[in-house]
Design goal:
134 residues; alpha+beta; Immunoglobulin-like; 4-stranded antiparallel β-sheet; 3-stranded antiparallel β-sheet; 18% helix; 45% strand; globular
Length: 134
């Protein structure tokens, strides 16, 4: 009976160790910029060249400091690009994407070009990329 418990404990410790190792290989990087009315800007994230399984999340919110923090609204990250949601953030839109992979430099750059309408207020787009490393 003791031998069965030892084997079960060893198996459990092994499974937990592997679970922890996988979790440490997952990462997320974020960056945020401000886009003033009537302008375009690029929000980008620099990742290691071994990053794979990229999952991007592009969001935008009102940049006014005079009121409580706005909730984040989602923006499209695939074609056809367009306006962000909800409707209160529709004056901000995704225009294009870019990905630069430079294994010689050891990094890759993921970016989205954002546009803010002329009659809009300043917006804060934020790009987060979840990835795994091998």
């Amino acid at each position: 009976m003791t031998q069965v418990r030892c084997r079960a404990t060893a198996l459990l410790v092994g499974v937990l160790t592997l679970s922890c190792v996988r979790a440490t290989r997952a990462a997320e990087s974020c960056n945020q910029v401000a886009i003033t009315p009537g302008t375009e800007a690029t929000v980008s994230v620099l990742l290691p060249d071994v990053a794979s399984g990229l999952q991007t999340r592009l969001q935008v919110r009102d940049a006014r400091a005079s009121k409580p923090v706005d909730p984040w609204g989602g923006c499209p990250t695939t074609q056809p690009y367009g306006t962000c949601s909800p409707a209160t953030h529709a004056d901000a839109s995704t225009v294009a994407t870019s990905k630069i992979y430079d294994p010689g430099d050891g990094m890759q750059l993921i970016g989205y070009r954002m546009k803010n309408a002329a009659a809009a207020m300043t917006r804060d787009p934020r790009l987060c990329v979840q990835y795994t490393t091998q």
